[in-house]
Amino acid sequence: MVSFRLSYQWLLLFSFLLFSTSISARKLSEDPNTDVSDDFRTFFYTQTLDHFNYRPESYTTFKQRYVINSKYWGGANESAPIFVYLGSEAPLDRDLNSIGFLTDNAAHFKALLVYIEHRFYGKSNPLGSIDKAIENEEMRGYFNSAQALADYAEVLLYLKKKLHAQNSPVIVVGGSYGGMLAAWFRLKYPHITLGALASSAPILYFNDITPQNGFYSVVTKDFKDASESCYETIQKSWSEIDKVASKPNGLSNLRQRFKTCSTLKDSSELKAYLDSIYSQAAQYNAPPRYPVTGICRGIDGESEGTDILGRIFAGVVANKGERSCYDINEYKYPSETKMGWAWQQCSEMMMPIGRGVDDTMFPPEPFNSNSFIEDCKSMFGVVPRPHWVSTYYGGQDIKLVLKRFASNIIFSNGLKDPYSSGGVLEDISDSILSVQTVDGSHCLDILKAREIDPHCLLGLESFEFLPIWKLYTMAGTGPDEF
How confident is the model at residue 417 (pLDDT cuts 50, 70, 90)? Predict the structure, then answer.
């Protein structure tokens, strides 16, 4: 049985988150219960469990879900393109409606849209649930990014063959971890995809390539840009919380002041809760709520004479709304994403996120690799491989490496997103480009376009500036020439 014990350090890391023609082949079966709308049709591909070995268990198969929207597709005869969304550390369901970048651009490019779920998440779990898979020491060994990329490759080659669409170019799109997968897919399978759009992909937040405090430095900047006084109040609040906690009945007083639903055992519980609120607000600081601005309005809006903790609590209320009590454990509860990502971090995705003394508005919390390793050993009995991602995919000397052998990748980052600190923020070559939106947040650029979006995103409405168009022109052709 896996002991899913979340330390404070883990909490920091978690703040990070068909067509009408028939295809009646052996490996396809339709699932009518998961259709989002008439434009989306859900299928299951009989996927290979282990793409890289020849042991008997390697030939085990499981059903992998993918969804296709053929409403706009020009067809194989026109060599119309295929836009592919690579699923990440969550079930595919919500992405079908929220990832509007594909549907917003499909009509212009006459594109077929394909969404592929990541193995072990959602309905693509070999054992049916994340709990069973994580507890199975043999099965979870097949739960990694390299196997996931091979899954995507197999599904796409299969579809192109069944659709007689060998000449249809493929462009892969992903966000966050999915953005990393999109970039890596282009590097590992260039014969399958013409290009990749990697949104909010922190591919450099490994192996000490990016400073530990990168994430929290951006969070700090977001709050400081919103309000200097708000930033200063938050910065001063941590020592004030500890000061109150150290007094007789201090934890009880903190509970009353912050109306926590449960008893506080240590001041670190309240600080971890506030840390999560601020970090999530910065990561998803998008319209119409703009949560960073909302928190600062709450903090700054209190009457003159209100003490620091009173202002901080007002920021909590501004973010969470009026409640009878506030659940400080709401970011700790296990979920499919948290459990799956915990395994992925302990096996290969070790991202050293921390902060030092006086380098952010938060109290010091340096990344402790020894503590991280002990947590992984406690939960899974494994020791992380901190250097594997940069060994297998690259990361060190990224400019030199990608310039030598890579092409047709766009790294898109909103600079308000804390994870942009681990992203590619400058052009590397004529076809390895960085697209930055000054007021953009995490993955906002691949969500549905709205009139309330920041002006930096609205400026991308002209097709010659769209990342998809850039991928075509970098390849020396345009959508009408396929």
Answer: very high
